[in-house]
Queue: 3 jobs
Job 1
Amino acid sequence: FNLVNAYENENALKEAYESAKEIYRINDEKFQVGAVGEYELAQARANLESMALQYNEAKLNKENYLKALKILTSNDLN
């Protein structure tokens, strides 16, 4: 795992999160008019929450990787 992987992982999960947001929005609109039931809306919400957690974790992993790299680089300079 390296910095490139960290960025790629974050970008992929950001896209998945954005997609989950759109799916939830569509299902919410359908729910409002009775086109989908509570179960479908709950599934879309659970997927959205899961994607949000995974995306946030990927962002934190990238930030931690960058911090570690900065520490290692500064130690190499000393």
Job 2
Amino acid sequence: MNEKKKIALALAACAAHEETYGTTVPARLRELWKSGEAFRAHGRCLPPKTSLPGFETGSFRVASVPPSWDYLGNMGGLDDAISGEGGEWKHAGSFLPIFLLKQSRLLVADLDDPSFPVGYYEDETFRSKSKGWDRGVYRIAPSLEAFLGTLVERDSADFETELDDGPWEDAAEEADD
């Protein structure tokens, strides 16, 4: 799928997030997709020695995804009874999915903080109150800019993810329905 189509889908997903959750997706996050910055980060990696809950320490490849709990829930892996509209996780509207690590493991931006801290989310841990967790998200970077600055090029990562256009194609199909 070409980048222009992905940008249109991402911006439509941002608008849908606003409508669904009664919140605002700030211009900086829209610009992440509109400028193509999210697509340039696609396939890059969190550096070696990154520590995420449920994983051994290592490097993680990231894939850009449509910023939509709904689209990502429909592609499988996420439980819409948890992260979907009206789901158990009451803070879904405060976070916007930006990158995929694995099918149900996402990196999200915090919409309630103007620096847009980035964190790790998965349905199974949204209730965690352990150190490092905030409203169901494990904080990995104090801002979107800091997060993007940590991404590195690697031939292989300790934890790989699919880099195909599957999530974007699924979102396009759903948008056409």
Job 3
Amino acid sequence: MLTESKKPSFLFINKLDKEHSSFEKMIEAVQKEFGKNCVPITYPIGKETTFKEVVDLLNKAAVESISGDDKDKALKYREQLIEAIAETDDALIEKYLGGEELSEGEIINGLKKAVNAGNAHPVFCGSATKGIGVEELINAIIKFVPSPIDVTPIQATSPDGTNPIEYKVSADEPFAAQVFKTVIDPYVGQLTIFRVFSGSLQSNTGFYNVNKSAKEKIGQIFLLKGKEQKVVDKVQAGDIAAVAKLKETSAGDTLCNESRRLKFDTIKMPEPAISLSLKPKTRQDEERIMTALSKLGSEDPTFKYGRDQQTKRIDSIGDWGI
């Protein structure tokens, strides 16, 4: 998905405070899987239990202030970063190959353009539970991820998938959005979360679900911030929002005005990597487990389950659901 989508993407190498963790091995594995355009932006100081902070590789002075072996490694990764940025721009690569040093402005602007075009995927590192490296990731998202008006036109098709459609990201265009997740809220029930690519959507109106060939009515629109749900009257291009209690809509569906129908590519989900079997003690337990699994499956498209009479096996992309 990372290499095919050509969309701005960041990676975060987590749990570097844990035993046997290795930044170098993870970078090598990521680049082997997804390509050399996955470039480190931060470098860890310390290993495992001594891991204490990260250094911004875009900050030359910060890198040069490091001591010992870490300095040599950080300088190596910084050089990889600059080379990867230069390779995405003819003027920059000419200057780089000519032995000239790229200015800080050229590096920052070059990275912005490369991220926008999906030609570079910044890699960050840290420990989420200890808050190490998280601030650097958030700041980079603000700094480098393009605003909705800066992204390239969205590629879609006619509802039957035969004719390509190029859709401009603008609040002035007809409404178009895509659902990427659903969650079960204990107070309002199922929340459908979607990204608005163009146009706007008012509360207490509705839209057309192309995938299900169905009209859906909505009530309130929410902006989500952790567990907080802020009610808003309207969302527009670039917003991520949620609505409750939709009857037909699920993850991956395209939402739009019925007068201008289009369809976005279905979101490709990774295949499950872990399998387990469950053996309920009683028939009543089995029914309760299947109800819980159904809720998990509706929230996470990578979570697959079924009632296999021989194995009673369920599958998941990770172990959180299991």
